[in-house]
Amino acid sequence: MPNRLEKEDSPYLQQHKDNPVDWWPWCDEAFQKAEKENKTLFISIGYSSCHWCHVMEENVFENQECADILNDKFICIKVDREERPDIDKYYQEVHRLLNNRAGGWPTSIFSTPQNKPIFAGTYIPPESRTGSIEGMGFKELSNLIARKVSENDEKLFANADEVQDFLGKVTHPTEATVLKEDFTKNFMLQVKNNYQTKEGGFSIAPKFPHVNTLNALMIIDRLYDEKSAKAMLIHTLNEMKKGGMYDLVDGGFCRYSTDEKWLVPHFEKMLYDNALLCEVYANAYITYKDETYLKVAKECADFWLNHMSEDNLFYSASDADSDAEEGTYFVYEYGEVYRLLEDNGYSDIEIMLEQMSITKEGNFEGKNIIRFENGEVPAYFEDVKILLQSLRKTRAYPFCDKKVQVSWSCMMIKALFTLGQVDAKYTSQAQKSLDALMQALYVDGKLHHTALIHKEAKVGAFLEDYAFASQALIAAYKFTQDELYLIGAQRFINTALEEFYKNGRWNFSSGEFVTKSEIYDNTYTSEIAVMVDVLLSLGVLLEDEKYTHFAFKTLEYNSYDLGRKPVLSPYLLTQALRYLKGDRVIKTDVDNIKNNASSLAEISYPFMQYTRSDEDGYMVCGDKSCFANTQNLSEIDRLVTNSF
Fold first, then answer.
1. pLDDT at 395 exceeding the cut of 70
2. CATH number 3.40.50.1820 is the correct assignment for the domain at 183-320+401-581
3. What percent of the chain clears pLDDT 70, i.e. is strictly above it?
4. CATH number for the 4-168 domain, one of 1.10.3210.10, 3.40.50.720, 3.40.30.10, 3.40.50.150?
5. β-pair type (256-257, 501-502)
6. Strand boundaries in 153-286, DSSP class E
7. Are 488 and 473 in contact (CB under 8 A)?
């Protein structure tokens, strides 16, 4: 018999509706029941495409013995972290505080009946492995915690009170630091210390792409002709596109690599990863003219447009698993590919298989992930890729989470506008997607965070939604010069300032569950950094210094942490450099902006704005004055460079 989650819209919560666990959604009634019955709270947070969430469901939440313990001694609450990122942020901070390290998903929280955290973990297997609490299995751990709560263990409740008090404190930076371009020196030193010289990237396994670090390196190279920044960037981009974490067959990137070579991923694909990687590869093509970067960027965009969208709205994720096994949709057996090539008249099949890293032994659990070790994709692969796709079509496609999220969708829309500088069809698609998103999730004058596709939006917007939506609207204005987009961005920013901002500090959410915002680029770009980006843009485009002032106050408030550890906040670092150096504005007619988008994109200075005017030719301006006019498009780069 289904539990209470049956009535929820969230695909993740729907996945757990038939668990034997008596789940509650996040609601006041659940917390009131826990306090009334003096029962411990168990709060489980995950998302629909999370591989280890599925593992914990199979091993723990479908385990009748575990379910009996939970149903007897706990009030159990399931949270979709994509639907309620405010709740997730709070409990990730709980995990960090209790364990002195970052958390992840699934997130497993045990709290007192008054919802004061006792224990925080991630995946917890059903059975114990060692005698320490770190090795306790779910059965032993949950029984222990429930017993201590029922006995009103004084030490446990005192610790919970201490944790709760700490979480409730508003902390402020130690001091302000003067913003300066020298922050880049510290950033480069820290990046070099993390850089993996062999396979690229900035961590050992598990290996994430760190897109904003790559973006910052590109901007530093463009500003200062920094050869080491360029070398780390190019090497990492080249290594990631060899295949593995990057899906050479369908296109698009998986979440992360489980090894150091970017070969074996967990196979889920997230909208935000693909949006950010699409944009960084598109910008790398514009900057360095490597055609393979453009190909990767287009394949990322096309994958989402062809497989993960509906009525110009983007799905949020696809799963790692199909047929209850990880990666089965994505990998190939040696024999099936050999026969496929043979049946289609190919010779030199053994050589082709070797080039595609397909062996009898396999490179993933006896099967094969397509990869070109030397980084060169042979010409034959365009045709072979279609054949490999035909094999995939005979398999079950991974589950797709059809939630539409404002923040993530706007990341992809911005990426499409970036690609549109090279291929105008992506500009057209970006406009269609932006307009569809606003129609679906900006309802009756109120922005929402998410909704299941074509369903009513119920969750109000968070700071990240206002930030990324405003950023996408400003990109739309930049490349179309439709002032309605600029007005929309200003409206959202004014609302965000009123609802989330106070004296340089930003909250992520407001209302019933207030959580603070961070400057760190963790899972994706910090919403604070994006707010600074948008505020700086509005300050220039509207010639309104109050927006620039709010950007500065945000930078000043966070300057101490930014100066000390810029490697953790690469996007905010780029916005600090932008504030210090200033934007440059090209004023010209709309046709020049639309027809010469590719040439304008090649201006080496990274902080450029465009505004329509009746000027003859191109007027080149700073934020307060114009200093040059030219009829020659190719002269603009020199004029901008010489303005510093």
1. yes
2. no
3. 98
4. 3.40.30.10
5. unpaired
6. 256-257, 265-266, 269-270
7. yes
